[in-house]
Specification:
By secondary structure, the protein is α/β, with parallel strands linked by helices. Helices cover 32% and strands 14% of the residues. Helix 4 links the parallel strand 4 and strand 5. The longest helix has 16 residues. Bound molecules: magnesium ion and zinc ion.
């Protein structure tokens, strides 16, 4: 995994939209461990399809400490990602690559969001740039990553959890540049700015 941080927001490469998983692509059930429970949130399929039609790479990053906690295995996480892809495919959409962090917070790994390990790996492996790129997520840690990398940062609070979401934005945490009511509205904002 690449070691370092860079706030080089001019990094050249393909434009990408990073999307969070739980609470953004699918409802956040807390430690989802059953592929049969995968649902895709409203506007996600159409939004991802639109991004890819406009030439964006779509990368999903997710903290999955449930693996280190022994609640499910990496193979289960992969099965869930396959299920998400299948659901998206029925609407002609697809995620280009999934990255997950299997560690617990106290392990201090370089990949757990808001750390940048998954993103630096994606940049290298997929040739991604930062200019014109964006991140869409339902929590402060997604917004923090966007700020560190110089991406357009869009918050889509999960419906019914708005108060919880905003309570996490203590004064020293970066704010989103745009708050969207749903995923499709977030995508429209990306496309207008692109
Ligand atoms: Mg989330
Ligand atoms: Zn990790």
């Amino acid at each position: 995994m690449p070691s370092l941080v860079g706030s080089d927001s001019t990094r050249p490469g393909r434009r990408v939209v990073y999307v969070d998983r739980d609470g953004t692509i699918n409802p956040d059930f807390h430690y989802l461990s059953d592929p049969d429970r995968v649902e895709i949130l409203e506007g996600v399929t159409a939004g991802i399809r639109a991004l890819r039609e406009r030439g964006f790479v779509v990368v999903c990053t997710t903290n999955q400490s449930g693996i280190a906690r022994g609640l499910y295995t990496a193979a289960t996480v992969e099965a869930i990602h396959e299920r998400i892809q299948r659901r998206l495919a029925s609407g002609a959409a697809q995620i280009d690559r999934f990255y997950f962090c299997p560690h617990r917070p106290e392990e201090g790994c370089p990949c757990r969001k808001p750390r940048l390990g998954m993103f630096l790996a994606a940049e290298q492996e997929l040739g991604l740039g930062r200019k014109g790129s964006a991140i869409i997520g339902d929590r402060w840690l997604d917004i923090s990553v966007g700020q560190q990398l110089g991406l357009l940062r869009i918050l889509v609070p999960e419906r019914g959890r708005e108060n919880e979401t905003w309570a996490e934005f203590s004064s020293d945490r970066p704010r989103p540049e745009f708050v969207a009511p749903d995923f499709l509205a977030a995508v429209r904002h990306v496309l207008e700015r692109a």
